[in-house]
Amino acid sequence: MAIGWLQCGCERLGEHDSWWLMLLWREMGEFRRETGGREQCRDLAIFAPNRVNSEVGVMGSYLEEFSEVKAKNSSEEALQRWRKACWLVKNRKRRFRFTANLSKRFEVREIQKSNQEKLRVAVLVSQAAISFIQGISYTVPEAVKGAGFEICADELGTIVEGHNVRKLKVHGGVEGVAEKLSTSLTNGINISDESLNRRREIFGINKFTESPAKGFWLFVWEALQDTTLMILAVCALVSLIVGIATEGWPKGAHDGLGIVASILLVVFVTATSDYKQSLQFKDLDKEKKKITVQVTRNGYRQKISIFDLLSGDIVHLAIGDQVPADGLFVSGYSLLINESSLTGESEPVNVSAENPFLLSGTKVQDGSCKMLITTVGMRTQWGKLMATLCEGGDDETPLQVKLNGVATIIGKIGLFFAVITFAVLVQGLFSKKMNQGLHWSWSADDALEMLEYFAIAVTIVVVAVPEGLPLAVTLSLAFAMKKMMNDKALVRHLAACETMGSATTICSDKTGTLTTNHMTVVKACICGEIKEVSSSMKSSAFCLDIPESVVKMIQKSIFTNTGGDIVIGKDEKIEILGTPTETALLEFGLLLGGDFQAERQETKIVKVEPFNSTKKRMGVVLELPGENYQAHCKGASEIMLAACDSTLNSAGEVVPLDEKLINHMTDTIEKFANEALRTLCLAYKDIGGDFSAENPIPFEGYTLIGIVGIKDPVRPGVKESVAICRSAGIVVRMVTGDNINTAKAIARECGILTDDGIAIEGPEFRMKTDEELQELIPKLQVMARSSPMDKHTLVRHLRSTFEEVVAVTGDGTNDAPALHEADIGLAMGISGTEVAKESADVIILDDNFSTIVTVAKWGRSVYVNIQKFVQFQLTVNVVALIVNFSSACLTGSAPLTAVQLLWVNMIMDTLGALALATEPPTDDLMRRTPVGRKGNFISNVMWRNIMGQSVYQFTIIWYLQTSGRAAFHLDGEDSGLILNTIIFNSFVFCQVFNEISSREMEKINVFKGILKNYVFVVVLSCTVFFQVIIIEFLGTFANTHPLTWQQWSASVLLGFLGMPIAAAIKMIPVGSR
């Protein structure tokens, strides 16, 4: 009879809807791609025999909206389409809470367009009005003057934001503005508490306005927006009115109050879960916004948070940094600023003394500078933009979207079953009335019975629409992100957690990721002689047989051609600032007896070309006495050696580099590299008096000063982490800018380079054809001397040609394209630039490769946990739906009431998600092969477990319904209520033990580590405790009857038997897909 109803229902379904049932048997994403689903359709031919062949294309079109969303860079059209496809949603506010706010993103683009136009107009007006400086006057507000300043925040805003050169000149240029801000361009601001407070009062703080955090009661209100709960609330109200009118108080109010109590319980449990999630996301958002900058205050260089910056601060910026507030250029070299984040304009802007305006939120694309902060916080355009941008939200993840699709489809099925169930129950009531000859006589009891039928139908929809599926993804991701933060990994984008679980390849940097990034010069080749270097060595001992002129030249090259700095700290100790490489060289310069400050004061730097990973060198030009110039260059050894035609001999004389000397230097570089040392060459060139700062620094005809070998030890635990990746089916590749011999030595030490692996240099890799790359890349394990575009090309080929899921590490500005291209971009938290971090999905806070492996483990844990929950929820869905539907069709009554179904819904939805989606990762996860790009989310293993458990549970419930009275010797007027209570109790305990079985989808031992997950234990204990309360004490409201200990034992035993059944089902072999 049930099959007949189902067939009848399918014949009546609409054009798209006959496919709903098919989705219970196939994962929605992969089904569309497998031969159009024709083979799978045959199973449904018994239900819709005339439609199987005609609607194959319809299924593909229906699923299109849920398959277009990617883990990264999804189009807004795709995000909009899937939302529209989810028309059957119980609670839109809750379902779409953790999705992107597309309207806010549109506002951001409009603001960017407006900013671009404002800047363009401001520059034009400013250029046209420079000659009209006379006559401009400015009156200082009394409050500003009283605080000790001569210029107000609004005036500063019009100067910088408006690029107003004429106003800047009126105020005496940058020096005049600094004086009016009571600051020193050399020593910065005075940091006494009183001084800082005055600045905050007059100029504001460097924070943007954020929308206030939602309180708990707002989450309660949003939980109440559930359409089905509102309908049930109306049913409860009608039940209360009719019940009290006919049966009086309190007896007539029991059914209605039971539903109200159930609704309130569901609402408060849901709101509590959502509120805790929101707090976790808020904490993570705070971590994402933590950016530190170098400032000079009271004459000392120090690192502070950008949120502590004040007007008048002197900030030092380098390539890859974010401009933290509006300000003016003080000094610097080759400064290029990318303003795309503020204006949408990708063309970089050259900032100099002639165009000194720096805007908050822009990025340093090249060069370095010192800037004066003028305007902070919400007075800047970036502050206003961020206030809107922070409401834009994170893109939803592919799994969220896919499960939203599953929820929508199952919801349609549930709606269909609910309508049929209601129709069958009402038809049964009509038949009974007809048989009694009372079809024209209707009482309040009949109305209440019909109302109960309607409540059951609505509750079937409540249970059938698995809103918890997509929300479980968010819950699991929030839990994982919080735990990963403790493990030194900051997740910037939700989807990264999910995608990392599928990673098949990791392309890792060497320096700072595989190595410690604590560099020291341990060897040097000077005047053709190799010398050991030790921090305990005195300069006189090292320089004993080196001419003084050569020592002076080395000191000059190190101290002038550097991106680092040597400063005196608050405790009068010398502090070396800069990258680890720069720090190692500056330490070597000090070891030689050099004086950094004296050297910098004696020389005038005319031009600087900062180091970048494309050129692999850094150069400066110095102005010498007599209007002559000298260029100094340092960089990758073989590249620098090729640019040299002479060297310094043991007497300090310049001699030509003949073949013998070149071979000696080349051998020295190889010797250093084979000892896993990073090698750098230092060189100089006298370029006479015909040099202009506008010209590039020449790169030929240099004199080699020396070669240094820098030790950067491999991090402890890296070799073990690489081995874990290998056992997990993840291929680790090293991509570095270092010498190939250094790279190979480190790669072997880490266990990355194997006997059958290939190591190649970037220039050679670039020359390969697509056919050659197809053969090369699977064996490629090390790429040395690579450029950022080489890394980008490798990632692109791995993703497109080999369909790998690729994770890439990066720290520099030029790594941004590869981080953006990769499935998961991993930026370094210590050595990484702000540009790299902004392009990344995860920030590795300790720059450690072992942390990347931890991220992969958590990613797999998230994926598996969501699979467990989906398996558990679909089992409850299937059984609850079929039990009530079949019972209504065959017996004319439903064994599970509205209150009971609401309780079951809470067990499988909020509580189930809490229990299963928060399982911590285990080491076993890293012994499995990765899911990869083609893996089905709902696997054959899951379908096997769902179907096996569903058949068992349905058999038990059906047996109890048909033979329960005889089995338990029930008779009397309460026998029906007792039997329904046993059915309800057995059904709940089936879910309790199935929840335990769902902890492992393939393993028999499901108790391993169960006590370590206190959330699981608490949820399970609470479920059992409240079930006892409902049965024994809330019978009046929940339509239950207290059970004897024999009936309790039987209910629990029937639930427990599901565990050995689940263990037996797991032994049935199925395909991996």
Task: Summarize the helices and strands and which ones pair or pack.
Elements: H1 2-12, H2 28-31, H3 38-41, H4 56-67, H5 76-85, H6 92-95, H7 102-129, H8 142-146, H9 153-160, H10 165-170, H11 173-180, H12 193-203, H13 216-223, H14 227-247, H15 254-288, E1 292-297, E2 300-305, E3 314-317, E4 326-338, H16 340-343, E5 349-350, E6 357-358, E7 363-375, H17 381-389, H18 398-435, H19 444-464, H20 468-486, E8 489-491, H21 494-500, E9 505-508, E10 520-526, E11 529-532, H22 539-542, H23 548-560, E12 565-568, E13 574-577, H24 580-591, H25 596-602, E14 604-612, E15 617-624, E16 628-636, H26 637-642, E17 644-648, E18 654-656, H27 659-674, E19 677-688, E20 702-711, H28 718-727, E21 731-735, H29 740-750, E22 758-761, H30 762-766, H31 770-776, E23 780-784, H32 788-800, E24 806-810, H33 816-821, E25 824-828, H34 834-839, E26 842-844, H35 849-891, H36 898-916, H37 940-967, H38 975-997, H39 1014-1033, H40 1035-1038, H41 1045-1056, H42 1058-1066
Parallel strand pairs: 9-21, 9-24, 17-20, 21-23, 22-23, 24-25, 25-26
Antiparallel strand pairs: 1-2, 1-3, 3-7, 4-5, 4-6, 4-7, 8-26, 10-11, 10-20, 12-13, 14-15, 15-16, 16-19, 17-18, 19-20
Helix pairs in contact: 7-17, 13-15, 14-15, 14-19, 15-20, 15-36, 18-19, 18-20, 18-35, 19-36, 20-21, 20-35, 20-36, 21-35, 23-24, 27-29, 35-36, 35-37, 36-38, 36-39, 37-38, 37-42, 38-39, 38-41, 38-42
Transmembrane segments: 227-245, 257-275, 409-430, 450-480, 874-896, 975-993, 1014-1036, 1048-1068
EC number: 7.2.2.10
Protein name: Calcium-transporting ATPase
